[in-house]
Amino acid sequence: MSELFDAVDALLASRATLPPPAERKRLRAAHGLTIDEVATALKVRRATVSGWESGKTEPRPPERDAYARLLDKLAELYPAPAAVADAVVPVPDAAVPATFAAVPAPAEAPPLSTGPAPEAAVMTATENTQTPAPAPVAARRPASTTRPTSSTSRRPGAKKAAPAGTPAGESDPRFENGPLAVVDVEDGKVLAYCVGGLVLDVPAKSHPSLVDWTLKEAKLGQPKLSGPGRPADPLIVLTEAACERYGLPVSLTEEEKHAGRIPEGHKVIKQLTRAEWKLTKRGFGPWARIYRPAQGSDRQCVQLCIPSWNALDARFWGDAAQLPPAELARVLGVYASRVMTPRGSTAVTGLELMTALHPPTHAVRDEETGVLRQAETKTPGSLGTDPVDCAPCEAPDGHPLLKDLPRFHVRGPAEKLFEEAYDWARPMTDAECTLRYLVGLDVNMAFAAGANGLNVGLGEPTHVKNPVFDPKLPGSWLVDLSHVDLSRVKVGKEWVELDGSLLPSPFTPKGDRPTGPAWYATPTVAYAQELGYDVAPVEAWVRYENGRYLDGWYGRLRDAYLATMADLGVDADLSPEDFLAAMDGYKERDPELTMVVSAIKATVKGGLGKLRERPRGEGWRPGERWRALERPTWRPDIRAAVISRTRINLHRKIVKHAAFTGQYPIAILSDCVVYAANGPSPLDFLPYREGKPLPGGFKLGINPGLVKHEGTQPVLWGEEVRERFNAPELNLARSIKDGTVTDTDNGE
After folding, report:
1. Mind listing the pLDDT tens digit for each residue in 235-288?
2. Structural contact between residues 106 and 197, judged by C-beta atoms closer than 8 angstroms
3. CA-to-CA separations, 695 to 491, 492, 659, 698, 699, in angstroms, rounded
4. Angle at CA 226, nearest 5°, toward 224 and 232?
5. Peptide bond into 62 cis (omega under 30)
């Protein structure tokens, strides 16, 4: 009899009641559990739990009853909000096809800001008939869902859930299915996972037909970001299974990785060529762009992304490439709605965003014919369509402007503009060694903040001899700043006495005091004046055509960063104590949104780096032009100005802090600065009074330019590391976050 009872118990457990997939994820996130922790407890793989939460698969005994027990306990601790259904009807596994997991209708999919990924909307269709897919349904939810196909329309009245932060313009009917789709193959069926949980059937049998379907039927894309601009091309992301289905390799060979593309003779490229599709000069690589030449205003272009070819670099996207299709669509969808549809790496997208916000040309209407045509002159405030040469001092080594220099000549500061981020450190004083901790502060979105409100050149430079310095005129200035003494500087309108030996020079990346004339960008020279010293340039390359080109770029990325951090529980108006608490463990609250944060920050740094892109193979030799020089966005002067201003912004805070507290930094690396303190928290040494920070000093907060806690290590750790490597000036800012130092500090 006991065997019969066991069989009955097993039968009941096999049908254990489970909430919808989104509720499963909400409950886990509410308790602060990670997918890995749940997987470990249930003795299953991480991907298994991820599949349960995305609705792709359903748990089976014996894990199902344990998973149901976990969710029941969590539901008692974290009751569903009023908007969530009062009751859930259990559905036998047999009634739910393995490929199409049961999920709520798209109209009820939660916004991304709630944390859980939107479920994949399951849809079935036979010719023109829409059939409800079996699914667990809540009492207040519609009882059926549909999947639009090439032969069916969306269910009347249904609305597609959009990611939080989606601009109002996303309602454009041309792009009603969102900016992108992740194409996967399940049980022989090709499915396109879109943002908001929508899933489309893909009828395309070949790569050319996939491109045709994307442009003609998928209704993918994104409205333009500025008046004179154009809509974003649809993005198709191919999973490994989709690569196999459409004749592409799942991974690249070493030779193909080095080339960044598959060979020109590949069968897929031949198929595209026969169908009269073209590829850009970078060929068919991880980010391939397939197009036909535009006919008037009719643009036909599809952007491809292939994660298994390392399109989503783990340094910037984390584990996004390993996500299931629905979750990957969510991550890329949030990024697309808040930044822009990716057009390549985060660096490429950062540069493309500048152009999208300031298109080089604009349409004008012919007064006689009334026909719109592109203007021959550039759009005001843009960089135009034609590249401009930089000044010789702004040119990187190997540039054609320097081809007449001796082969092994090394340019010094009087010949070369060298505006770079800080990499500075000094030995600790005896007094600092008696303190207990080293505390690191990190400036949020430091380089984005450096771009905000910055006046940069929009055109060619003009050479001037013996100019009068103008802090409002962007350019590069040859001037001697060696007379600036940090022991006595102006802070505001008051002269203050400081220990200059404990401060880095604001004029060099290594913090060394200049020894003679050197080239500097405008913000650096202006700061010398701010500190109370006269400047007398002997030469300059200035740009009389100028403007705040990066303001919109900064604003877009700032808003994307703040919105995503708010989704992770870190708001812009928190008190210092609440801010530090909110930042503690924020990455575990929603690992997918954390990937978006990482990508946004990489977009800032990468986009600025692209302004001075160096040769990338191509058989280049010093003195020859390289491909990037043909872009109007190849502007090393703009990059230098942003880095200059970022470094100066940090030095200004350091000086204010030193003047008020007598505390000096021990190490600085880019946007991270380390201080010795008696306590482990930034609040143990930052001079807050009644919750208010020192004006002009360091302020805790999530806004760009404010600081967060980077990490804390014991002072004894710092001394031991420096002694171990016999390097009194080893930069501790490089390893303050986790304390790991694996090799000598080589500046990399």
Report:
1. 999 999 999 999 999 999 999 999 999 999 999 999 999 999 999 988 999 999
2. yes
3. 11, 11, 12, 8, 9
4. 20
5. yes
